[in-house]
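Reminder to self: tokens first, then the designed residues, so the page reads top to bottom the way the pipeline ran.
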């Protein structure tokens, strides 16, 4: 509620209503009538102002009614979706799937795919691609062999270190420490 006592939340079904949920305080049925308003706009008689306030009250009442009807319809829609097993996540999945299908069937996507296919054929058929591919393949094989050799050497060194007298002495000292 704002300081005047009216709900100004645009999503509220009570927007523009006083604290009791009634009509605006400026309308004829509210707490003060036209007579309580200090000044009227120029060229407007008191009777015309009363008629406009009356119309305003009716329109605001209709707006409130429409909000309530819309809220009821939204609840009914949510219930139907729940009964059909349509969760917001499922709706999102369906929308994304349809959107992706629309993209795949679009002329731009089809033409781009064709062009990329042509480009791919040209690139993979070129001499430069073949040489680069062979070079990378050899480099990969050599790297694999180097890591394998390094692993074997590292394993042997750790085994040697474990059998060394220094490690045995350290292992004995740690083993003799009592916990607790």
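Designed residues (180 positions):
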């Amino acid at each position: 509620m704002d300081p005047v006592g009216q709900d100004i939340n645009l999503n509220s079904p009570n927007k523009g209503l006083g604290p009791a949920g009634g009509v605006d305080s400026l309308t004829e049925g509210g707490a003060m009538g036209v007579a309580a308003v200090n000044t009227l706009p120029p060229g407007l008689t008191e009777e015309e102002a009363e008629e406009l306030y009356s119309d305003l009250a009716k329109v605001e009442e209709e707006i409130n009614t429409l909000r309530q009807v819309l809220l009821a319809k939204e609840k009914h829609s949510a219930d139907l979706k729940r009964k059909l097993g349509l969760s917001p996540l499922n709706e999102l999945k369906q929308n994304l799937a349809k959107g992706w299908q629309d993209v795949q069937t679009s002329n731009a996507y089809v033409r781009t795919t064709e062009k990329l296919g042509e480009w791919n054929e040209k690139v993979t058929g070129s001499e430069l691609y073949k040489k680069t591919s062979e070079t990378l393949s050899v480099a990969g094989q050599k790297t694999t062999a180097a890591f394998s050799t390094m692993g074997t050497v590292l394993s042997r060194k750790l085994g040697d270190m474990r059998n060394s007298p220094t490690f045995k002495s350290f292992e004995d000292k740690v083993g003799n420490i009592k916990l607790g």
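The two ends are 66 Å apart (CA to CA).
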